[in-house]
Structures are given as C-alpha cells and as structure tokens.
Amino acid sequence: MERLKVMRNLCEVLGIDFWEKMEELDIDPKVEEMDDETSPRVNLAVELLENTKRSRFLKIKELGLRLIELRSVMIDQEIDFANVVCFIDAASEDLITQEKALSSRFLNKIKCEDSQLEQLSANRLKEKNLRIKTKIRELLKCTHLTGNEVEIDLEKEVLEELKMQKEMLKVEVERRSDIVIRAEIWRKSVDQLEALQKGSKNTNKMELMRCELLAKRIEGIKNILVEMVQTWEEKYDSPFSYDGDHLLTILNADAKPSSSKAEGMQKQKAEGQVPAQDLKSLLTPHPKLRRTPRVPVPLEEHVPLQLHVVAPLLLVPPAGAPPPMAQAAQAVQELPAPLPLPDVPVQAGSPPTMISQFNRSRQSLLTSTMLKALQVMKRPTLSTFQVTMMIAMTVTTYLE
C-alpha cells in the first residue's frame, strides 16, 4: 500500500489522474493489498513517474533561468512566473510536492512564454543593431571615411562587436574633426568659385573683386590644410584619407583656382579681343562723390521773386537763340490774352498756396492756355530744357 501512496502523490504533482493510471495498470481501485502480480506493475509505474518528475523539474528549472535572463531584457513585459522561480531554488525534485506543480499544462505554458520572450528579445536586438549600424554610417559619412579604411564590418550581427566598432570610430572622428571641417570649407569654396565664374556672363568690377577675394580665401585654406595634414600624418604615421583618396594628393593635384575674371580679360587682351581701356576701367577704382549738405529754408520766409518781373525776360528770346526757341516764344505770344491776376508771392516749400487762390473760371482758363502751349511744343526738334522753358513762359504769360 505504501507504493500506491507514492504513486498517488506522484500523479498529483505531475497532474495525472490517479484512477486512470490504476485502470491503465489493470489494478482494481478497491484493492487493499498487492499481490505478487500487481506489485511489479506498481513499482514500474512509480519508477516511470519519478523519471518524468525529474525530467520535468530539470526542464522547468532550465526554462526558469532563461525567463529570468529574458525578463531582464524585456523590462516592459509583465509575465507571471513566480512558481518557476521557486523551482529554481529547489535542490531536487523530491522537495516539490505541490499539486500540479509539474503538470504538462504548466510546462507547456512556460515553453510558450519562453518562445514569446525569445522572439521579442530577438526583435529588440535587431533594432539595436540597426540603430548602431545607422550611427556608424553617419559617422563614416561625416568624417569622409570608408569601412575598409577603419576595418569596420557592418555585416556583423553581434551587438558587442558593433558597439566596439562604434567606439573605435568615435575616437577616429575626434582625431580627424579639425582637418575634415576645413576640407569641407575648402571644397565648398572651390565649388562656389566655379559656379561664380560659369554663371556670370557680364564682367564688372563687383564680380571681379568677389572672385579675387574668394580665390585668396581658397588659397589660404589650402595652405593651412596642407600643413595640418602633414602634421597629422607625422603624428599618427598613416595617410589621411578623404572619401577614399589621399587628401594631400587631392590638394597638390588641384590646380590653383583662377584668381578673378581679370586674368581671363588679360588673356583676351593679349589676343586682341578686349580693348585696353575696358580692362583699365574695370581695374581703376571710381572716386566717391561727396554730397552737398542740404540747408533747410524756413517756411515763414518769402522768396523775393515776383512772377510778373520774370515773365517779360522769359518771353523775349535771347540773341542768337536757335530757331525752335524763337518759334516757341512767338507761338506763346500769339496765344489769347488771359484774364489779369494779382501778383502772388511764391512761398518756399508750399507751391499749392498760389493755386488755392484761383477760382474755377480762372483755373479752367489757365488749363486751356497750357494745353495750347503744349500743342505748340510737340515738335521733335525741341529739347527737354526748351520744353521746360516754354511751360514756364506759358504760366508767366498768364500770370503777367
């Protein structure tokens, strides 16, 4: 009967129905004592159950350790495996007596959780690898390096190796930063000078000076770069590469940029294509004209000028005047005489003062008189100055 009790306990721990097991062994459930026929079958069943218990215990213990490891990676994943942790601390399977503690259902649940966590951990590991590889590519691009030059293999999938490569690349970036920054400035300046020389069609002094300044800047950056690269190569005993090429070779092979368009014009002058005075006018600075300061005139003061005094002088053509001027003066004199107006002094800064004193009839008469004068002035032989004088004579004739 003791062996039957052991078999009952094993069935409870393993989650197996004891009565089904008895029927499987063809043993009467009401038996009180075992005979020589049933005893070997019970002993064999107990031995098999003990082996199953031992194997399940070891499997759950192994899965428990894996769950703890994956749990540390997947912090945001909530999984209940407190029973599994308790099994890990157990020294042997004999200490596990809880009902269904080692059942096949519980074991399958742990296996399912283990596979899910393993898949999530693999996905997260791939994301970390992808982020590190992207960072390595960005560092290679900003330092103008290739993977072969710094012995970086982006095909690796081991996270620790990728982290080591990233740290090595950071050190290389720190060593090369000063030279790389100046090399990028030099490249952009050369491209800017080429675009300026190709894009501008007309040669003027402003473009000439701009090209000269940019060429001097490029030459200065180039000289500094050569010295820095030579010092760097002596210090680290290795060539300084830039986009897969030796930077010193690039600097030495690069022709000195054209200083300005003046060089091209000088070549054209030697070939007889550009006149000498044109080149001289571009290279000779123009003097700056000083502006005369303006003196404000108070509005209260009247200008001592009466229009009726100036009118006769304007109407009389001077001696030796050209024929158009004389003809215009004659045409103005032939205009119909307007109504007389009183003399009005002109105030500085306020010309509308005189016009505001006219009534409507006199304004219309003035307008018609000026239109007739303008019809006389529509001649191709008259200059701007002559037209201006005629308008002044028309107004003064009316105001006389």
UniProtKB/TrEMBL annotation:
GO terms for molecular function: microtubule binding. Pfam families: MAP65_ASE1. GO terms for biological process: microtubule cytoskeleton organization. Keywords: Microtubule. It comes from the Eukaryota. The keyword Signal does not apply. GO terms for cellular component: cytoplasm; microtubule; spindle. Belongs to the MAP65/ASE1 family. PANTHER family: OS02G0126300 PROTEIN, PROTEIN REGULATOR OF CYTOKINESIS 1 PRC1-RELATED. This is Uncharacterized protein.
